[in-house]
What does this fold into?
Amino acid sequence: MPRLTVKERLSNLRKAAIFMISIGPEAAAQIYKHLSEQDIEKLSGEIARLENVAASELSNVNDEFHNMILAQQYISAGGLNYAQDILVTALGEKKAMEIIKRVQMTLEVKGFSVLEDVDVTQLLAFLQKEHPQTIALVLSQLTPIQAANVLAELSPNIQIDVMHRIARMERVTPETLNAVEKVLESHIDFTQATSKFGGVKPAAEILNMVGQRFEKNILSGISKEDAELAGEIKNLMFVFEDMIKLDDRSIQKVLKEVDNKELAMALKACSNELKDKILRNMSKRASEMIQEEIEYMGPVRLREVETVQQHVVDIIRRLEEEGEIYVSAGSEEDTLV
It folds into this structure.
């Protein structure tokens, strides 16, 4: 998919907002039902920011929407070339190519969303017969919890191989996507551009959900081949804000290892919920001192705060490895009782 500039993205968001207003609240509400929460939030914000919309701008937006709908209908009826011929005849070459380009962008591959509703048992039966690269490609496009459930059922060696491949995956060629498409026997419409798949963050999200029982073995296996990569994954698996998941006893043990000045700086950039939970696990006097430290600290660079927060995370990971605290992995069944 061609990458949009910031200007183009903002322009498209404004167009969407104008169109939603023009069709009225009832029709707009029906469209909202098909959007993600993130898209709804962005679109609603843009609608709220709209003030004076010129009649010409409103007309242009509605014309563009109408033309794109026609183009999609022409493509469905006779393919891209058929649609292009009709639009060139009706609107001229320049305008037609602009519309065709936009429609092509809306037809890009959306990952393997068609697999989101597939039963994990069926998906596992399919993937167990495939090459680790194919498994990695598919898992990188599932939700972390779904991917974790599949990963947990694979053999230890395959788990390590697959996670290593996911973490190292960046761009996937059209040929590879086409090969996977055939294997999946699906009708996914892949574009001719390389697509972003996998990476360290998706690998960390999956391991976060798979649970400690598998996590340590997989990370250990990856570390033998690429210690730096294993470290990158591990750093993303538990971030400072995740301290909210720790029980009070674990937080108290962590706080014993953290200098008060460092803690105050770490709390400069976190949610109020986490800050309140940490302060509740301190004595009244210590809590007051930390709050005073934060108040009198003044502005600090975000990267300095993040460095201190990472130091706290390192302490948490060390205490976890030593068995001093328990870090919930989200989907792990072996919870404390």
In short: Residues 1-10, 186-196, 330-337 have pLDDT under 50 and may be disordered.
